[in-house]
Amino acid sequence: xxxxxxxxxNRWHYTRECLxxxxxxxSQDFRTVVVDDGSTDETAAALARDYPEVAVVTGDGNLFWxxxxxLGIRHALALGADRVMTLNNDxxxxxxxxxxxxxxxxxxxxxxxxxxxxxxxxGETIYGGERLDFRTNTRHDLLDEIPASQRTGLHPxxxxxxxxxxxxxxxxxxxxxxxEKRLPHYLADFDYxxxxxxxxxxxxxxxxxxxxxxxxxxxxxxxxxxxxxxxYYQHLFSIRGGGNxxxxxxxxxxxxxxxxxxxxxxxxxxxxxxxxxLH
Length: 279
Description:
Layout: E1 2-8, H1 12-23, E2 30-37, H2 43-50, E3 55-59, H3 64-78, E4 83-87, E5 91-93, H4 97-107, E6 112-119, E7 125-127, E8 130-133, E9 138-141, H5 142-145, E10 154-156, E11 164-168, H6 169-175, H7 188-198, E12 203-213, H8 219-224, H9 229-237, H10 245-255, H11 261-278
Parallel strand pairs: 1-2, 1-4, 2-3, 6-12
Antiparallel strand pairs: 4-11, 5-12, 6-7, 8-9, 10-12
Helix pairs in contact: 10-11
């Protein structure tokens, strides 16, 4: 059985839209676990009132993404999950999303799978996976390489985000859960899927499984909305900082081949130091 893990903190309007999209799935062969990390809005009451089918696990507000997801995965595994999926609450799943992910999982039972993503506001395709060249720290966006008419099937990638990430139990059995100690929020998903790939598990973006997302709600976008010294510091060093230097260092040390590590680190630091002001 597939268990879908959704970490939430407030923003009930997004959570409701996400859960409604799961209710509308053509395949209902899954269970949903919401990890409510101390929400102070109507999340808890609305979940209990309107979504009795959803299991709720609670935190005290200090879990952040990684520990929240891990808490949900542990709960799912204890209930007998043979695969789990991490799903952000600010995404909307296409009606056949689960069916397409399960179909791909049936054909590739040890594969880690992500989804093709669209901007929920414009309908534009915005994410289809990427391949990273560790030698030069160069990212190759698959959407630049695959024409719109050929965007179907599975495509191998270096890593995947956690916004709609299917993980077989074989993966958690071998490499454990997400690295909540060193990567409490950002890069934990890219790190986990990169580690899984290096451990021998295929990592694919499934172009037949579609999600709509709200790019403006990402922490990186919010931090950069108003340029300031405080925002710059948060970008580089806060847990929610998209350019967090410590997180990047941990990711590099764990995943970059040693011969390429010095340049990869220096290049990555430079990009983070100046990137806040360029994007």
